[in-house]
Amino acid sequence: MTVTARVRSSELRQTGTVTKNRARRRRIDAWKAFLYVVPALAFSLTFLIVPTFQTAWYSFYNWNGLSAATWAGVQNYVNIVQDEKLRDSFLHVGVLVVFYSFIPIVIALLLTMVISRAHALRGMSFYRTVLFLPQVIASVVVATTWLSIYSPNGLLNTALRGVGLDSLTKVWLGDFSTALVSVGFVGTWLNVGLCLVLFLSGVGNVQPELFEAARLDGASSLQEFFGITLPALRGQITVALTLTVVSSLKTFDLVYITTRGGPGDATTVPAYEAYNRAFNSGQVGSAASVAVVLTIGILIITALIGRLQPKETE
């Protein structure tokens, strides 16, 4: 019995040692995993999280960026509502949402309906590439190109003159009635390809048997689209809405290069106002408040759009 007890005691000690070693290895592995995350975490803290809180702090002060700051409380936020120029900038970005998001999604859905039924046609992959091409071109190049197209002697006016519509020619980016719409159409051109690629990838996940069954039942193109394609694209439409709405709300470089907010204040947007007030007008506190409101707005809109995302069980 004594020998048996000693053997059992030895086995228990060995088991305990193995268990401790395993626990130690798990702790070491956990620390190793944490060390891998540290560089990304440090980068985010340094260039994203800390500057975000600093910006929010600056928004409660009147500061020109050089001299001593004075406490302003919530006045900078009140000015966003009271200042007509700032109010208009948020209204302008609302108009851009239509051109950057809703119109591209509608156009892309129509193209998806056509392409999904004509996928066997020769050269279809080429057309897809051409439509997506604007997404891979630098925004500065895009803005410069459209600035040339919209110029008095640019491609658009030249084409109008060529077909005898001289009365319609104008300085598109210099006219109060057309400047914002002209900027918006550039956003439409940019985002159609992105939406189309998303939707075509979604259509590719639909079982071909569903389309074949619908065609055998005599379903028209519209019936097939609204009955099969559109419901299957709910997730892709949500992603497209998120990407395009956020891109419209963040619009800066296109406005900066093409119009600088002009003519007058006809194309000012919040991102441009934040830049202009911080670096040109010496109103850092006001610029910070605009940036904070814009950021909160983007987060809220993104969360609301995310609710459209289908559940995994659906």
TrEMBL record:
The chain crosses the membrane at residues 33-53, 90-114, 126-149, 176-200, 284-305. The keyword Cell membrane applies. Residues 90-305 form the ABC transmembrane type-1 domain. InterPro entries: ABC_transporter_permease, MetI-like, MetI-like_sf. It holds the Pfam family BPD_transp_1. GO terms for cellular component: plasma membrane. Keywords: Cell membrane, Membrane, Transmembrane, Transmembrane helix, Transport. It is a multi-pass membrane protein. It is found in: Cell membrane. GO terms for biological process: transmembrane transport. Its main location: membrane. PANTHER family: ABC TRANSPORTER PERMEASE PROTEIN (PTHR30193), DIACETYLCHITOBIOSE UPTAKE SYSTEM PERMEASE PROTEIN NGCF (PTHR30193:SF41). Belongs to the binding-protein-dependent transport system permease family. This is Sugar ABC transporter permease. It comes from Subtercola vilae.
